[in-house]
Specification:
Elements: H1 2-12, E1 22-26, E2 36-45, E3 48-60, E4 67-74, E5 77-81, E6 84-89, E7 92-97, E8 100-101
Antiparallel strand pairs: 1-2, 2-3, 3-4, 5-6, 6-7, 7-8
Length: 108
């Protein structure tokens, strides 16, 4: 319960998010694999809006040589500084500038 209160208190300091809900696709370094997906949505928890991040990455299994999928889901730590937005989830740290994900090559 203390954790939920802490998350709610931290989130109250961010009255509105600059990111927009949606899905971003970034080109995979291996052209034979599907593109990486970053999906951001907003979920309301007790009147507090929280960002929800789902990252889907594809890679070749070293054991089978088949395409494997890694999906990471959760409520990221969110911050802004100097006109940039940051989201951190597990070991992933995303940086947004001008509504674009930094270091993301558009697959088109």
């Amino acid at each position: 319960m203390k954790f939920l209160m802490l998350v709610a208190a931290m989130s109250l300091s961010v009255s509105s998010f600059a990111y927009t809900d949606g899905e971003i696709f970034c080109k995979n370094g291996n052209p034979d694999l599907p593109n990486t997906s970053y999906k951001v949505s907003t979920s309301n928890l007790g009147g507090v809006d929280l960002p929800v991040l789902v990252i889907t990455k594809y890679y070749l299994s070293s054991e089978t040589g088949q395409v494997d999928t890694a999906v990471i889901k959760g409520v990221p730590a969110y911050s802004t500084s100097g006109g940039k937005e940051y989201m951190s989830l597990n070991q992933f740290r995303l940086q947004f500038e001008d509504d674009k994900l930094v270091n993301c090559t558009d697959p088109d």
